[in-house]
Write a structure and sequence with these properties.
By secondary structure, the chain is of the alpha+beta class. The chain has one helix and nine strands, in the order H-E-E-E-E-E-E-E-E-E. Strands 1, 2, 3, 4, 5, 6, 7, 8 and 9 form a nine-stranded antiparallel beta sheet that branches.
Length: 126
């Protein structure tokens, strides 16, 4: 009697275990969002490091455009992906170069961001 209950419970447990693994599909929500996050919008510069009248680096972000200086890509039709809590990856079309381009931005606080562009990092402030 005890053996019969043990066999039945073992068979039942195996079916439940197989059913749990067979139906384990992961939800993969859309991670790319159109536009830019509101907390990153605005003008970010490193002007404090440059003497008066000198050339400084700047990052301009509005709802659908990201521009990193005049010498760097001007991204239109921007999408972004949230990689980590405060790290964002922008992807857009560089109009001048005629190709797609991506840029990673780390948001530290409302006064400080860091950009990562092709092995270079740049700290910018509001």
């Amino acid at each position: 009697m005890v053996l019969k209950k043990f066999v039945i419970s073992a068979i039942l447990a195996s079916f439940i275990g197989v059913g749990a693994f067979a139906n384990s599909t992961q939800a993969n929500a859309a991670t790319w969002h159109m536009g830019t996050p509101k907390k990153l919008r605005g003008t970010w510069t490193d002007k404090y490091k440059v003497p008066r009248g000198g050339i400084y680096d700047a990052l301009y972000i509005n709802a659908h455009i990201v521009n990193l200086n005049e010498r760097a890509p001007y991204l239109a039709n921007v999408r972004y992906e949230r990689l980590n809590h405060d790290i964002y990856k922008f992807y857009g079309y560089d109009i001048e170069a005629g190709r797609h381009y991506s840029l990673k931005v780390h948001y530290f606080n409302k006064k400080h961001v860091r950009t990562y562009e092709s092995r270079h990092k740049l700290d910018l402030y509001k």
